[in-house]
Amino acid sequence: MNHLDLPLDQHLEGVDRALATWTETEKSRIEDAQRACVSEVAKDEQELRQLQERQASLQANAKTAEASREQQKRSIHGRENELRGLQAQVLKVEPVLAGLKSREALHRGNVAMVNEESARMTQAHQTVVDELMKGIHMYQKLGLVIDRKGESNLGFVFTQIDPQNPAREFSFALRMHERQDVFAVEHCVPDVADAPILLDQLNQTGNMSAFVRAMRQRYKSLV
């Protein structure tokens, strides 16, 4: 071997060692970089999975919220339909209610009028009865007894008419129709043929004394 080749060989060996050292260093650096990259990738993958899970959860929540909103919309729509139905019923009921209120007011007015008329008739009837009862003593001198029977009936019994039998009784009864403010003959013993005519005159004039005198005259004509 040429002595000039020795330094070259040594130089090449040094280069080889340096290259090997650099190679090992670079390899180690690359491996460290790869491990770091793998770690970063794993970390990124974990974060990605977490983000995907979060996204899935948000999507599920969004679907649930959307379903809830749809349910609320359907519920609101149903309530709106129910409300419109109730409003339609109210519109139908209001005229009926107004009519009922109007009829109620009319009925109350009619009741008030009937009550007033009844009170007036009752007062008129009571006035007639009171006047008759005041004249009892005077009529008794003529052999007349007036018997009040209930609120609306009066009985008239005459004696001292038949000279052959002064105790013989001639009688009739009057009943007053309070609603019509008229008198009616309940019975008449003995019968007086024109009693209905005399009764009409009584109801037209209200003159009870004239009616009683006329009935006594009719009884006298029957003796």
UniProtKB/TrEMBL annotation:
It comes from Saprolegnia diclina (strain VS20). Keywords: Cell cycle, Cell division, Centromere, Chromosome, Coiled coil, Kinetochore, Mitosis, Nucleus. It is found in: Chromosome, Centromere; Nucleus; Chromosome, Centromere, Kinetochore. Pfam families: Spindle_Spc25 (PF08234). Component of the NDC80 complex. Its main location: nucleus. This is Kinetochore protein SPC25. Gene3D superfamilies: Chromosome segregation protein Spc25. Belongs to the SPC25 family. CDD domains: RWD_Spc25 (cd23784). Residues 151-219 form the Chromosome segregation protein Spc25 C-terminal domain. InterPro entries: Spc25, Spc25_C. Residues 41-89 form a coiled coil. One of its GO terms (biological process) is chromosome segregation. GO terms for cellular component: Ndc80 complex; nucleus. The keyword Magnesium does not apply. Acts as a component of the essential kinetochore-associated NDC80 complex, which is required for chromosome segregation and spindle checkpoint activity.
